[in-house]
Batch of 2 targets.
Target 1
Amino acid sequence: MSKKLNIGIIGLGEISSAHFAGFGSNPHSEIIAICDSDEKWLEYCKKEHGVRYGFTKWQDLIACEELDAVAVCLPNVFHAEVSIAALNAGKHVLCEKPMAANVDDARNMVEAANRSGKILMVSYNQRFSPDIQYIKRYVDEGNLGEIYFVRTGWRRPMGMFPGPGVARASGEYSRNWFNEKAMGGGVCFDLGSHVVDLAMYLMGFPKVKSVTGCAYTKFLPEVLKDRGVTTDADDHSVGFVKFENGASMHFEASFGSYVERQQVFQALYGNKGGVYREIGAPVKLFSSAAGAYTTIVPRIDLPVVTPMAHFVECIIENKTPIVTPEQGLAVTEILEGILKSTEAF
Ligand SMILES: NC(=O)c1ccc[n+]([C@@H]2O[C@H](COP(=O)([O-])OP(=O)(O)OC[C@H]3O[C@@H](n4cnc5c(N)ncnc54)[C@H](O)[C@@H]3O)[C@@H](O)[C@H]2O)c1
């Protein structure tokens, strides 16, 4: 392909650096437009990254006819409205995780993607890590037999709560939306969306039968009490999911609690074997295939692929991304199920 895809990035906060790097270094894409409501920061980023167009309103970026695709890197509550508008305007969309702030929004995004015929991919970046790709192949080869239980989680110790503000070149910026329910904040949707997605991906997205859980707001109000900010989102969430095939999933996500250290983990239990994956540690495969119970630490040398590179490849080659809108919806249904179950409780 001779022409590069023209990319626009909407939202220039922390995660945008991965999009600048991913699209900027790809020989088949070029970032030609960016958008942020913070005008001073927008101007800074425009110069810093040498981008042609800058907009303070996402509607103006989407109206830019030269664009082939947009990356939506806004607070969660805006994901649906902006992604749907972009799809309706004929752009492919790479939307940051979580897909949306609630199930209704996620469902509308699926419909918009199907109607438009454009790609809508949720940027579940952990799926692309070599260890997850290795485990996915190992599972799909049948090495675990029937997977009947998965434990998945991301817990952080005290001291790792999302800060309400950060300093950047344009001045102090409020990032407190992570702690606000109305903005789609809270750990269940934030860290939880990654680990529920990973568990579902490795299990092959079985159909959900029931979801129960508890979402707690135990520490945020105390930790941020002198900062004058809203702190009504969940900071520790747990859940239990039953699937129609008889399997189940235990889920835990925490912005901060009295635990030893940060852990991001998936433990898969099958009737022929098991897997334990934890970020920062080697993958472990458990099996009796050789006649005795063994633990194997495999050598993993798969290439690192970014979500941006995969998204670009799928557009150019007209392929379906490994993260589909329907999968994003299924993850959102579980996350919302946990929060709703708490309200009932
Ligand atoms: N994949 C990952 O591992 C990962 C990591 C971090 C964040 N994220 C996701 O990326 C998204 C953004 O997170 P972040 O950490 O970059 O947030 P952030 O708060 O650092 O940045 C958000 C940016 O959006 C801008 N903004 C807010 N409302 C706007 C609007 N209406 N129009 C235009 N600009 C607006 C803000 O000025 C800010 O610069 C979230 O959905 C988050 O969950 C994903």
Note: The domain at 127-304 is CATH 3.30.360.10 (Dihydrodipicolinate Reductase; domain 2).
Target 2
Amino acid sequence: MDEHIYPREAELHQAIDDEVAPGVAYPAELVEVREKAKAEGLWNLFLPDDEYGAGLNNWQYAFLCEEMGRSPLVAPMAFNSAAPDTGNMEILLEHGSDDQKARYLQPLVDGDIRSCFSMTEPETAGSDPTGLAATARLDGGEWVINGHKWFTSGAVGADFAIAMVNTEESDNPYANASMIIVPVDAPGFNLVRSVSVMGHDKGPGHCEILYEDCRVPEENLLGHRGAGFLIAQDRLGPGRIHHCMRAIGTAERALEMMCLRAADREAFGGPLADKQFVQDFIAKSRMEIDQARLLSLNAAWLMDTVGKRAARQQISMIKVVAANMVMDVLDRALQVHGSLGMSDDTPLAAMWRYSRMLKLADGPDEVHKMVIARREVGRFLKKRAATEEKAA
Ligand SMILES: Cc1cc2nc3c(=O)[nH]c(=O)nc-3n(C[C@H](O)[C@H](O)[C@H](O)COP(=O)(O)OP(=O)(O)OC[C@H]3O[C@@H](n4cnc5c(N)ncnc54)[C@H](O)[C@@H]3O)c2cc1C
């Protein structure tokens, strides 16, 4: 990070914005850095599998993920550990056929291509994907996909999308969706636009995609028919915690910048660092970051020791805590930098724009809080029922 990322961070970020285009997954300058990272084995650090990845568990990866999160728009890509490729590699590894692994997983693992994940739709509520409208029907050995998606992050320059679409019509809304691998050159895959997000539409983008009678071979189904929700859960568990660990790194860097700026900037007869309001910003940030880190490490440890399903509550909890913590810390850092903080002369503004998505992506805060509360109520009801049964 010190040698290859921070000194060139702004330049690499600009190159990603300027050069990523259909058919261009990474800008040349970044490819150079990526080759160095790969040569040093700093590659696919998120993937616990020994054969395809670095073989680290979630807890071990947490510390590296935090380091990468200090430069969230550049470093994860430099180490081939950026979303949404990370989640796609995980589900291809877990659910892909041998052919899918050879054709789609291996080039992602090697860093030759990028991919995207296409679930959210403009016309239906992404927070409740049982309402998805996109469909795929089998016709002559091919899936014919129709649907309207948006916020398919990274579609510009990607080789393929994994699309979540309805293939079944059962009474169980959680058993109707499937995941299908769609190469971006499949007939009927139309990248409409990169949606402008807070004034930014460059680079890999957050894209609107129209699937119009889009045809892919039947064997592009990932896992089995109707397994979309199960696979989505597998994807989102580690993905959520990776976002949180990166957010902690982002906040840690913002705090460092806030402290240094406060120490150097003089106003009203002394450095900002001596003003109590600013000290409150710094102290609160320190405490909140450390709380979030411990919660995040606890969730990672539970995932490693009792499994992703059993750690669901802790994953939801850290998802909400980290998303809010990073925004609060960034906001304070920005404030202490004054107008400089809002400029693009420091990475703070870009980190703020990037991090804001965390309160929405992979489930909005409100939905996570809803399930956290439901599980807590359920837990205490179960406990009471057990006590009453014992007494009877
Ligand atoms: C930068 C960014 C990148 C993204 N990348 C991807 C991607 O790569 N692929 C992809 O498929 N999607 C992606 N998304 C989409 C993201 O997953 C969705 O925005 C999210 O699931 C919410 O869906 P929605 O936007 O349709 O909001 P809606 O479902 O319309 O929800 C809007 C709001 O309603 C409120 N709400 C919803 N349910 C409840 C409830 N039960 N109780 C109280 N309030 C509630 C919440 O405040 C929520 O934010 C991305 C989003 C962003 C912002």
Note: Residues 230-383 form a domain with the Butyryl-CoA Dehydrogenase, subunit A; domain 3 fold (CATH 1.20.140.10).
